[in-house]
Every structure is written in C-alpha cells, then in structure tokens.
Amino acid sequence: MSAEPRQARWPAHLPAGALRVVRWSARYEETVAFYRDAIGLPILGLPGGPVHLEIVRAGQAPYPGGGLDQLVFYLPDAGAREQMQARLAAAGARPVAQIGYWQANGGVTYQDPDGREVVFASWIYVPPGS
C-alpha cells in the first residue's frame, strides 16, 4: 500500500469541460485589480482555460457578509505560500484574522475589496476517501 494519497478524480457522471466561479462585486474596478494585479491571475481565467474566475458588477449593493465565503488556492508547499504572501505584501495587502482551521493547517487569509476571503493553503487538498 502506497503512502501517497490517491489522486482525486472528477466524477465520470459530470463531464465538465471547464469550471467557472462567479463573484459579484460592488467595488468592481478594485476587485478586478486585486485578483489581476495583487494575486496575479490572468484576466481571462487560469492557465489552460478550464477554470475561470469571473467578477461581475453588482451595482452599489454592499456585500451581505455572514457565513463562510472563501476562495481557496491550494499551493504545493509553504514556499509557494510565502511567495504569494510576499507578492500580496508588495501590493499593500495584509492577512486578516482567519478561522482556526486555516490557522492550524498552514493557511493565510486575505480579503478582497468586497470583504470576501481569499485563502492560500500550503498543501494540496485531497478529499477524504480519495
């Protein structure tokens, strides 16, 4: 038996060619700049095209808050997380208080201009039973 966890596979019954995550923003220009300039995401999605983060204008409606609303980037190791922290620090972003789970598991949390959490974890997530 291998000590390596099995690689999670996408379910065969859901043959998605791409995944798009949409986040509304009352502070559109600032939010696009945060994800594009501070985090460094390409303007038209992640490399390879199968995953897209789309920011849409929400007028002047404030972010309702409450509940858990996170975008989580699972990075390969602590070094990659530290590089992202340095990049965000250079852009003027600072970590925010985070839930105990991320604190205990090598994550660091920031907020985008709309107040939504963006987490950078220093390990690759493998779902239980994978």
SSE blueprint:
Blueprint: E1 19-25, H1 28-39, E2 51-57, E3 70-74, H2 78-90, H3 100-104, E4 107-111, E5 117-121
Parallel strand pairs: 1-2, 3-5
Antiparallel strand pairs: 4-5
CATH topology: 2,3-Dihydroxybiphenyl 1,2-Dioxygenase, domain 1
Structural class by helix and strand composition: alpha/beta
Could you give the order of the helices and strands? EHEEHHEE
Task: Please count the helical segments.
Answer: 3
Mean pLDDT: 81
Q: Shape from CA axes? A: globular
Strand order of the largest sheet: 3-5-4
Protein architecture, described:
- The chain is α/β, with parallel strands linked by helices and 130 residues long.
- The protein has one domain: 2,3-Dihydroxybiphenyl 1,2-Dioxygenase, domain 1.
- The chain has helices at residues 28-39, 78-90, 100-104; strands spanning 19-25, 51-57, 70-74, 107-111, 117-121.
- The strands form 2 sheets. It has a 3-stranded mixed β-sheet.
- The longest helix has 13 residues, at 78-90.
- The two termini are 14 Å apart.
- 13% of the residues are buried.
How would you describe this structure in keywords?
2,3-Dihydroxybiphenyl 1,2-Dioxygenase, domain 1, two-stranded parallel ribbon, three-stranded mixed beta sheet, alpha/beta, 130 residues, globular
Structure, briefly:
Helix content is 23%, strand content 22%.
